[in-house]
Amino acid sequence: MNKSKCIIAAVVALIANAGQAQNATKITLNQGVKYQTIDNWAASDCWTAEWVGRYFSQSNKEKVAKWLFSTRMDANGNPTGIGLSSWRVNLGAGSAAQGDDSAIEDETRRVDCFLQADGTYDWSRCPGQQYFMKAAKDYGVNDFVLFSNSAPVHYTKNGIAHCDKTTGSANLKDDCYDDFAEFLATTAKHFTDEGYNITHISPVNEPSWDWQDNSQEGSHWTNATIAKLARELNTSITSRNLNTKMLIPEAVAYTTLSGLFSENQLNAFWSQSSSNYLGDLPSLAPIVAAHSYWTFGTNYELEHARTTACDAAAKYGVKIYQTEWSLLDNAPSKNTGFPEGGYDAATRTDIALFMAKVIQCDMIYANAASWSYWTAMDREQWGQKDRFHLIRINANGDTGYESYGSLAAMVPYMTT
Question: Does pTM surpass 0.85?
Answer without folding.
Answer: yes
